Amino acid sequence: MSAPRPGGRSARVVASVHRAVVDLISRGDLDITISHVAHEAGVNPTSIYRRWGTRDQLVLDATAAHLRRNSPTPDTGSLRGDLVDWVVEIEHNLVTPEGRALLRTLATAEDHPGHARDVLHHFGDVTTVLDRAQQRGEVPPTPEQVLDRVLAPLTLRTLLGLAVPDGYGRHLVEELLASVPQQC
Amino acid sequence: MSAPRPGGRSARVVASVHRAVVDLISRGDLDITISHVAHEAGVNPTSIYRRWGTRDQLVLDATAAHLRRNSPTPDTGSLRGDLVDWVVEIEHNLVTPEGRALLRTLATAEDHPGHARDVLHHFGDVTTVLDRAQQRGEVPPTPEQVLDRVLAPLTLRTLLGLAVPDGYGRHLVEELLASVPQQC
Question: Largest CB tally within 10 Å, which of A25, A134, B54, B145?
Answer without folding.
Answer: A25
